[in-house]
Every structure is written in structure tokens, then in C-alpha cells.
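Lecture 7 notes: from sequence to structure.
We start with the chain below.
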Amino acid sequence: MNSFVAILAIIIAYFCGTLPIAILIAKSKSVDITTFGSGNPGASNVARALGTKYGILVFVGDALKGALPVLALLSHKPIAYACAAAAVLGHVFPITRKFKGGKGVATGAGSLLPLHPVLIIGAALTWLLVTKVTKKASIASIAIVPVLVLAFVVSGTRMWEIFSLIGIGALVEIRHASNIKRLLSGTEPPVTGSTV
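Predicted C-alpha cells for the same chain:
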């Protein structure tokens, strides 16, 4: 693959990441998700506002916008990883919305799913378990990054892929800074029955 095509693919992946799935779905129900609850345009906040099925819809949409660019470049693995990072970057820091995006969990999971399906499915199940036990989706989201890195190491994944995962995971962790502060102060709200 020549460098022009690779750069173009990465740029397209970034703009795929900027697609405001949560905002569009909430807006279709006359809800401004950026002013509801945590204000985060993501699956959990949409679930709080509109119910579980809409939260799942947002999660799937956010995952797809990460997965599709990676699938298109799966035969060129380094470029596929770059597209995964670009899609997550587009989601968490979208130029189209003054760099105010979501947390990146669903888009990150979606972007890595074509690359490591077994590990990502395992990570998703772990996320669900931790959320159920702690009653806080933020704890599960923050914890899943180091858990996934460990899983990559144990499974014998190549070092450059592990470093790529750490870079993508760092974007997710950075966006959870406010959650970490609330967890430390004891003010982080638990998930409700309608959250995902």
C-alpha cells in the first residue's frame, strides 16, 4: 500500500469516528444528550435518557464506526491499527464538535474487534461483569484497558501491537479523567437499571 492511500485511509477513519451517533439518536427523540445527565454523548448516557435499547443502538453504532475502517484495511495490519487509533481519536476529540466527544469505549472495542475478536469479546464480557459487580460503568471502562493489555501480553501478541493498544487505551483513559476524580471523591453515580 502506498503512503498516500494509507494516509487517506487514516483520515477517513478519523472522520468516521467523528460521526455523532449518540447525539443523532437522542436528537431524534428530542433530547439534547450533551445537556442530559453526565453530558457525555455515549451509550450509557443515552441509555439513562432514553432506555436500554437506545443505549445498545448507540453502542453498536459507535462500535461500527471503529470496526468498518479497520475491516477495510485488515490485510495491512499496521495501517489497520492506525485506522483504529484514528477512529477512536475522532470519537473522543472530534474536530467537527470543537474536540468535545465521547469516552471512546465502544469505538475502541469496535476498532479492535476485527484485529483480535476473541480477546475483545472476552474483554466485553469482563466489562459487563465488572459493571454488574461495582454498579459503575466507569470503573469497568477504566479497568478494562490494563486488563486488555495484560491479555495481549499473555496471549503472545507482538510487541508493536501491544504498544498500539496502549496508545489507543490511553485515549480512553484520558477521557475518563472526570470519572476518576468523581470516583476518588465518592461522587460518581452508579449505573441504573436502564444503563448499558
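Points to note: Residues 3-185 form one domain. The chain has a mean pLDDT of 91.
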